[in-house]
């Protein structure tokens, strides 16, 4: 089994993109002596995991995030269970670059030794990478993770995302869009280049497809500037000019642009009328004070100023859109007044991938389980500092 990952890698490379899971199944059976496998993919709300090979796995229908599957998915650690028939099941997280895709289940004839567990972890990494690459070539895996039809606006929004999370030696970032199947204009984007993490969060203007189209234009204008080597100011100014000349000031986009130096914790920022930025340090939540400038697209040739602040190792930043901060169901005080700080403090021991879900669930509870009235985006960024880079 010394070349187990190599054998799986070759099988995955040679498989058509829509047959990656079948190729992995055959390779794992051969290499690990498995009697069966299953691949579960997380849905858009990250509320359940759904099988790709459901027709071949009786009784393996979608699983809510609880029990064995939840422990594996949430902890990002292998979990072993033993059956009455002497067989065992090994659950291994499917993750790539810090983005949690799902769980790989491997059924084995007996209790697996630690060497088999380590090989299964390596194989799961190969499968996750193949799934991430194949996702752009087939709709199969997208179908597995949606439990209802997306609106056209939501389809565009999810397609626009670079991913839902990313990890680095010194930081971990995660975000979530809600309502997942009908989200309109609110959005987030990120890119990692040479140790610099750029994050943008947009509070879309309007509702539905109209809002989404405005967001698509804005995000791609910022990407165009960024990919051409432009800094935050150039990104904001190009996006603002693009939106203005298309809508003549009648539409605009409130945005915050952040650039984290992953080595030092120094953050550069452009606050264009923006979503709300909060810092969790220890057990205390505070607003990050930035000078608000004009939203993108309000006036022609608007110019923006750069601001800076520092993070301490262990700091957690939350960026939330108005759909989170200003939620006021039944005429009560807004969610951002006190309830949001409580939910953010409750995430102290959770990784960002779980923290964004906690804040969203608390927001839903604040709405007494009614549908959200507005789009909501939560982005969570942890900066671990140089110690985090050294110790992973």
TrEMBL record:
Domain called PPM-type phosphatase: residue spans: 166-383
Listed GO MF terms: phosphatase activity
Keywords tagged on the record: Hydrolase
UniProt xrefs under SUPFAM superfamilies: PP2C-like (SSF81606)
Cited Pfam families: SpoIIE (PF07228)
Record's protein name: Serine phosphatase RsbU, regulator of sigma subunit
């Amino acid at each position: 089994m010394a070349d187990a990952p190599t054998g799986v890698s070759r099988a995955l490379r040679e498989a058509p993109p829509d047959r990656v899971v079948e190729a992995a199944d055959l390779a794992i059976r051969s290499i690990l002596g498995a009697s069966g496998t299953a691949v579960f993919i997380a849905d858009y709300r990250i509320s359940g995991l759904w099988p790709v090979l459901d027709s071949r796995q009786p009784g393996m229908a979608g699983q809510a995030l609880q029990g064995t599957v939840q422990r594996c998915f949430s902890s990002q650690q292998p979990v072993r269970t033993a059956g009455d028939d002497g067989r065992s099941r090994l659950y291994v997280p499917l993750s790539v670059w810090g983005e949690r895709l799902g769980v790989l289940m491997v059924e084995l004839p007996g209790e697996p030794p630690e060497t088999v567990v380590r090989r299964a972890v390596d194989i799961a990494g190969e499968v996750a990478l193949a799934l991430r690459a194949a996702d752009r070539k087939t709709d199969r895996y997208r179908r597995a993770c949606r439990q209802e039809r997306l609106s056209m606006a939501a389809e565009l929004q999810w397609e626009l995302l670079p991913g839902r999370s990313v990890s680095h030696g010194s930081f971990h970032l995660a975000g979530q869009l809600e309502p997942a199947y009908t989200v309109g204009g609110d959005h987030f984007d990120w890119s990692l280049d040479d140790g610099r993490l750029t994050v943008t969060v947009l509070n879309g203007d309007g509702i539905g497809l109209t809002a989404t189209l405005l967001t698509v234009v804005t995000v791609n204008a910022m990407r165009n500037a960024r990919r051409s080597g432009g800094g935050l100011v150039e990104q904001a100014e190009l996006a603002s000019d693009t939106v203005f000349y298309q809508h003549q000031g009648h539409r605009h986009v409130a945005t915050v642009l952040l650039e984290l130096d992953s080595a030092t914790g120094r953050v550069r920022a452009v606050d264009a009328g923006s979503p709300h930025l909060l810092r969790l340090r220890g057990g205390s939540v505070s607003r990050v004070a930035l000078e608000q400038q004009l939203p993108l697209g309000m006036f022609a040739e608007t110019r923006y100023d750069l601001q800076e602040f520092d993070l301490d190792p262990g700091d957690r930043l939350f960026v939330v859109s108005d759909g989170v901060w200003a939620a006021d169901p039944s005429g009560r005080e807004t969610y951002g007044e006190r309830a949001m700080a409580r939910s953010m403090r409750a995430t102290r021991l959770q990784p960002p991938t779980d923290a964004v879900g906690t804040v969203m669930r608390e927001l839903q509870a604040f709405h007494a389980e009614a549908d959200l009235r507005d789009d909501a985006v939560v982005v969570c960024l942890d900066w671990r500092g140089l110690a985090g880079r050294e110790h992973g």
